[in-house]
């Protein structure tokens, strides 16, 4: 469900100046792309398993609406199912119908906002998150969604305030901690970032992003062992991520295990041929012992 950071690892004294610059560039590029990926993969406000975006489930929800066409709850649920299936326009239509039937349906505003975000419509997304918060000032998921919108727009102070508000509301949504951790990481506050990533992991242990984020901060603090463990855990959870393979390769390279580093960089480049940190890493470690 990808990390912003503008200050990163202090390379080891044994590295050459060129290697220092290359590793730093790779790490910065990595964290920026991780942030973009996480933003794109933020889960829906209503939690659905994958089957709920299936054609069978959509057909069942449609049958329910045919029998009860003025039920805003069912439109909201079907809209979320459409969103899970990637049918964003249908999702917006259902959320809008739910809001016509119940203008105080703050969950539908937050759900529609998420779909607008997925379509790149930040203006309408922000308006919907604001509407959800006006209707329910204690709705943690709307603060988290709006915070993500602010974060991807570079409005980091506003994003931090929204994530903090959700946490103050005792949210159990791991995204609040994960995304606050990204902001701490961006400002070089790696110990605070590690605490937030750890909390996110405690709330959702099967999500790879917090492990990768925590590993980045461990690496920035010179804790290669814990970083390596986290990067490997992220890969176990998602071995199709070029960023995670590049993370792993960075540790191998720091250990001067260039052959292993090259293999991991090569796997990253195979998964994403346009991913520059992987290609640069391959150039640095090609032919390594």
Automatic annotation (TrEMBL):
The keyword Repeat applies. Keywords: Repeat, TPR repeat, Transferase. TPR repeats lie at residues 72-105, 106-139, 140-173, 174-207, 208-241, 242-275. InterPro entries: TPR-like_helical_dom_sf, TPR_rpt, Ycf3. One of its GO terms (molecular function) is transferase activity. This is GlcNAc transferase.
């Amino acid at each position: 469900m990808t990390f912003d950071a503008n200050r990163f690892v202090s390379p080891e004294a044994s590295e050459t100046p060129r290697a220092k610059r290359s590793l730093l560039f790779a790490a910065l590029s990595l964290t920026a792309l991780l942030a973009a990926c996480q933003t794109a993969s933020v889960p829906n406000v209503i939690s659905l398993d994958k089957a709920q975006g299936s054609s069978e489930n959509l057909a069942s929800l449609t049958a329910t609406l045919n029998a009860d066409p003025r039920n805003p709850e069912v439109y909201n649920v079907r809209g979320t199912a459409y969103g899970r299936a990637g049918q964003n326009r249908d999702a917006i239509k259902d959320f809008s119908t739910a809001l016509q039937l119940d203008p105080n349906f703050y969950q539908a505003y937050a759900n529609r906002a998420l779909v607008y975000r997925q379509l790149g419509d930040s203006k309408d997304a922000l308006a919907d998150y604001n509407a959800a918060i006006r209707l329910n000032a204690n709705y943690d998921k709307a603060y988290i969604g709006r915070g993500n919108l602010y974060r991807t727009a570079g409005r980091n102070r506003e994003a931090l305030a929204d994530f903090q508000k959700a946490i103050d509301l005792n949210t159990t949504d791991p995204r609040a901690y994960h995304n606050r951790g990204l902001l701490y990481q961006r400002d070089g506050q790696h110990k605070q970032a590690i605490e937030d990533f750890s909390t996110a992991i405690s709330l959702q242990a099967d999500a790879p992003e917090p492990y990768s984020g925590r590993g980045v901060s461990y690496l920035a603090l010179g804790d290669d062992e814990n970083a390596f463990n986290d990067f490997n855990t992220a890969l176990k959870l998602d071995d199709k991520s070029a960023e995670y393979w590049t993370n792993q390769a960075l540790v191998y390279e720091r250990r001067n295990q260039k052959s292993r580093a090259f293999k991991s960089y090569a796997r990253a480049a195979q998964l994403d041929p346009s991913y520059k940190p992987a290609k640069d890493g391959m150039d640095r470690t090609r032919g390594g012992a």
